[in-house]
Amino acid sequence: MSYLDWIVLSLTLTFIVAYGIYKSRENSNIDSYLLANKSLPWYHVTLSLMATQASAITFLSAPGQAYTDGMRFVQFYFGLPLAMVILCITFVPKFNKLKIFTAYEFLEGRFDLRTRTLTSFLFLLQRGLSTGLSIYAPSLILSSILGWDITWTNIISGGIVMLYTVSGGAKAVSHTHLQQMGIVTVGMVIAGFMVVKLLPENVSFTDALHVAGKMGKTNLIDFSFDLNNRYNVWSGLIGGFFLQLSYFGTDQSQVGRYLTGSSQGQSRLGLAMNGLLKIPMQFLILLVGVLVFAFYQFTNPPLFFNQVEVNKIKKTQYASEFEKLETEHALIQKGKHAHVMALTDALNKGDESAIDKSRIVLGGIENDVKEVRGKAQTLLSKANGAEVNDVNYIFLRFVIDYLPVGMLGLLIAVILLASMGSVAAAYNSLASCTVVDIYKRMYHKDDQDRNYVRASRWATFFWGIFCIFVAQYASRLGSMIEAVNVLGSLFYGVILGIFLVAFYFKNIGGRAVFWAAVLGEIFVVLSYWKDLTAFLWLNLIGCVLVIAFAWVLEKIWPEKTILTEELTL
Amino acid sequence: MDKKNGLTPPEDLDGLPPFVSSWPQLYALLIATLVILIALFYLFMTHFE
């Protein structure tokens, strides 16, 4: 990195930390520390929800995914607006009426203390571990591409967040989210403009989209119903709906964001706007990836974008085999350029038959590229002893190789800020649950407010250290994205099941739902351990099992008195 | 809705953007936007493919 890149990166990070500390100087009570005094307007809520959901991987992986797989990933978010509507109608009024700090407090009023404690414990376990992975994932990519030490990258990226979350709590989290989303958006828009600027002179923005489109990269919509196809309209609307409902409705890192709204209306509008903006935002990130793909149709791309893995294989017995693949790939790319130029000419002239001809030829060439890249990936996995994939490296490699000095610093700041946004919300939510659901509820029920604030600060500090510690050991878990999704799938389904019983099955009591959750969680863990099903199905299985077990248990072992949702604290 | 006079209580209006008069209208708008986005994405795809 150049001096200018370092200056841009340092100034951006320093500004965010200083701003977070400045905006949250006064935190005299627990309402202020954990809920920002419930004083924030809807746009704070919206941007905070978006910053919490968008991790560093969103900005690294999504453009790479568009490059390799097209834009079809956008369909994954189609269930989100529907989930926001259900949250506004059901969850927000209930949480608001009870004036709760954590989503799990509601469960004590509706069921009993042990159900609340169990759910809170499941959340702490899942979120604590997955936040460690959220710190590790961008650290791994940045350290391998830029040669930074992974241990220090973990400590610095996780530690910077601790600086303002320990002192500032929810206020600092929300105020920094606002700035982070601003910088992230500016960074991505500039990156998009730069890609278009780097295209050959006679190739316009729409020409680039036509080229990418003719090669199958603008595949935004797939109406076919196919259970084996991960991304289509139906899996997005149905599967995405349940996933987003459980994430935004039962994960304290998100619930804590809309509980900071100054009123029920502001929280609702914040959620609704999140439903409105998330899909276009994801579309634009994927569009940047498609433009990078179009750029590489006029310039030779590397065979494999993770240079660290390429350097490794070149020191092994597989070096000559890999070099052969590199030569083959370069020849295919060289042969492709003439056809791509012919296509852009045909597009400018509106010559439909020439366009069709080029499309067929380029489609065939693209399949050849995929085949060679597949062979290279298999060879790299064989030689370097681990499954390798370069999707997360495509965008960063492009930034390093082609964007001007200063832009690399800005884009690394964007990646770190995105990571900090989700990690900050996680620290705050972990501290909320530790203090409100355990410390305050079980050990210090009527303590002074300043003691709760002090306990919250220590809890934030503890979870920060814990997550950095997990990040140091995360390399043993294999694929990061999969590890995060597996962790979520192990717990989300059961937690969602408990909340759905609470909202929609008024005749089921605490005893039945508690044991149903215990049985459901055991079954989910066993299913994963014995490899009975693909892990994504564990969400649905966990949720359905809790509802079914609770219903059966209530029938055979009915409870005399079933509580309403009024809290009895 | 207020059962007596058919008006929305003032506390329910808090947060409502000026272009809608009730929360159900906002939810309908959200779903309509989703449908429009899917349609626009479909047009975008077919245009560039």
Structural class of chain B: mainly alpha
Mean pLDDT of chain A: 85
What's the Cα radius of gyration of chain B? 17 Å
CA-based shape of chain A: globular
- CATH architecture assignment of the largest domain in chain A: Up-down Bundle
Biggest contact? A-B, 34 and 23 residues
The number of helical segments of chain B is 2
Low-confidence segments of chain B: none
Radius of gyration of chain A: 25 Å
Provide the succession of SSEs of chain B: HH
CATH class category of the largest domain in chain A: Mainly Alpha
What is the N-to-C succession of helices and strands of chain A?
HHHHHHHHHHHHHHHHHHHHH
User: What's the number of domains of chain A?
Assistant: 2
Secondary structure tally, helices of chain A: 21
- Number of DSSP strand runs of chain B: 0
State the helical fraction of chain B.
55-70%
Strand residues, percent of chain A: under 5%
Q: How much beta of chain B, percentage-wise? A: under 5%
Q: How many strand units of chain A?
A: 0
- Residue stretches of chain A low in confidence (pLDDT < 50, at least 5 long) are none
The description of the largest β-sheet of chain A is: none
Structural summary, described in words:
- The complex is a heterodimer of chains A (569) and B (49).
- Helices cover 76% and strands 0% of the residues of chain A.
- Chain A is an all-alpha fold.
- In chain A, helix 1 (3-22) crosses helix 8 (150-198) and helix 9 (205-214) packs across helix 12 (264-295).
- The model of chain A has no long low-confidence stretch (mean pLDDT 85).
- Chain B is mainly alpha-helical and 49 residues long.
- Chain B has a domain at 22-49.
- Chain B is 61% helix and 0% strand.
- Chain B is built from two helices and no strands.
- Chain B has helices spanning 10-13, 23-48.
- The mean pLDDT of chain B is 81.
- The chains are: A mainly alpha (569), B mainly alpha (49).
- The A-B interface holds A 42, 74, 78, 81-82, 84-85, 88-89, 209-210, 212-214, 216, 218-221, 233, 261, 263-269, 272, 275-276, 279-280, 283 and B 11-17, 23, 26-27, 30-31, 33-34, 37-38, 41-42, 44-45, 47-49.
